[in-house]
Design brief:
Elements (H helix, E strand, L loop, with lengths): L4 H43 L7 H23 L1 H29 L4 H27 L16 H19 L1 H11 L1 H6 L4 H27 L11 H11 L4 H23 L4 H9 L2 H19 L20
Helix pairs in contact: 1-5, 1-8, 1-9, 1-10, 2-3, 2-4, 2-8, 2-9, 3-4, 3-8, 5-6, 9-10, 9-12, 10-12
Length: 326
């Protein structure tokens, strides 16, 4: 038995990853974009005290409505304008579902886990039904794909980088960020000093879900140019894992999204640019379904190791009831 086999393979893997990094980086960023936008949705929601496990459903619904808008308008107003309209519709869809979620969680004070589950189940069923009813019988494509800018990445991917930096600054360096963190940590104290807890939570949930809608637009209008039933494939839940991994901060959540994107990209790159030697034989021998499952396995491992140590906002998931004045 070669005692140096494992150290040698590890060294070859590191060299291989460094070599393919220029090709790997755009793929990772592209795969991380919907995860990062979904994670930002979670950050905005939970920093203000509202749990949202319905990100998956919001992304899927927005992906469908954005694609449907492009599908319906591309012959009338032209492909380029239809793509813009599709993105706007997807963002608006996310915002409207955010309004629904905020109403259920903030006003009605429904169980927030159940409210998110309703969004997920409803999105999965309704998008599949309307896809079969409207899009599939037509036999026509949508508005196409948003053109790439550089490195094969489009404007939504680059806008995500700007949004991460902007939200990181605003959350910790602005009055809005201070109020957001206040209603997520101590809503009663925030209410005492004149902050409208209900309005702040409504604003953040709607804005966050609009970002999840943008993630849906990315999937159908910038990444694939098509819609398939259940195409989000658990990205909304991975986005929540990235948020927890990043400890409820925009930059940390983006780092988590990049991590999951890297494991997803690995399964792509080993087929496109296979390694040589013993490492290449080993990577090629691994069944493709293991590469497909890798991001989900990493999600489980990270959550098992991080959840116990990560501390969410103190009022996260706790409905706030304004005390009646005497």
């Amino acid at each position: 038995m070669d005692l140096l086999l494992i150290p040698r393979l590890i060294w070859e893997l590191l060299v291989y990853l460094v070599t393919i990094l220029p090709d790997l980086a755009p793929i990772i960023l592209g795969l991380a974009t919907p995860l990062a936008l979904g994670a930002l949705c979670g950050v905005l929601n939970e920093r203000s005290g509202v749990v949202n496990i319905g990100i998956e459903g919001i992304m899927l619904t927005a992906a469908f409505t954005g694609y449907l808008a492009g599908f319906a308008l591309h012959e009338t107003i032209g492909p380029a304008t239809a793509l813009i309209a599709g993105v706007i519709v997807a963002i608006a869809t996310g915002g409207l579902l955010g309004l629904l979620h905020a109403w259920l969680c903030v006003t009605v004070r429904a169980d927030q886990i159940i409210a998110g589950t309703i969004l997920n189940i409803g999105a999965l069923g309704l998008t599949a039904y309307f896809n079969r009813l409207i899009i599939t019988p037509s036999g026509q494509g949508g508005a196409g794909v948003i053109p790439s800018l550089v490195f094969g990445l489009g404007p939504i991917a680059f806008a995500t980088l700007v949004l991460v930096g902007a939200l990181q600054f605003l959350l910790f360096r602005s009055r809005w960020g201070l109020r957001t963190r206040a209603v997520g940590e101590h809503p009663k104290a925030a209410d005492t000093v004149g902050i409208n807890v209900f309005r702040q939570r409504y604003q953040n949930v709607i804005a966050g879900c609009a970002l999840a809608g943008l993630a849906g637009a990315y999937l159908t209008l910038e990444s694939t140019g098509s819609f398939q039933n259940g195409m989000t494939g658990g990205r909304g839940f991975i986005a929540l894992a990235a948020m927890i991994f990043g400890r409820w901060t925009p930059i940390g959540a983006f780092g988590g999204a990049l991590l999951f994107g890297a494991f997803t990209a690995l399964g792509v790159i080993v087929r496109v640019r296979p390694a040589g030697g013993e490492l290449g034989d080993l990577l090629a021998a691994i069944p493709s379904f293991w590469y497909a499952a890798l991001p989900y396995l990493v999600t489980i491992v990270i959550l098992a190791g991080v959840v116990g140590r990560a501390i969410p906002p103190a009022a996260d998931g706790i409905p706030y009831e304004k005390e009646a004045r005497a």
